[in-house]
Amino acid sequence: MTTWTSDELNRIATTDELEMAPLRGDGTPRTAVPIWVVRDGDDLYVRSYRGTDGAWWRTAHGSHEGHIRSGGVDRDVTLIEEGDPGVNDRLDDAYRSKYSRYRGTYVEPMVADPARATTLRLLPR
Question: Average pLDDT, stretch 29-53?
Fold first, then answer.
């Protein structure tokens, strides 16, 4: 199993956004979209601001594969659904902390149940 290097984790976790290009069923990538990313230990996570209505998330949910760019890191990834309430609680805290300047606008939807239901762990390939 491939893991993130410390350098990759730090570079991605300290950037505001990650470019996500999930793969369609035929293996072609969707156009990359900017999304928020947070770190929990040695793992990186993303969520859909629009919950399951997010087009990029629907594609990612179907294929569980994609390509990301962030902080100078350019990697293919496997997307693993995260349903553990404890992990999601920690991620809520991470979103609130990292993106605190957006409180009252974008953060609250990112920690609400519809977004929590779309939490994906990024595993490098």
Answer: 97
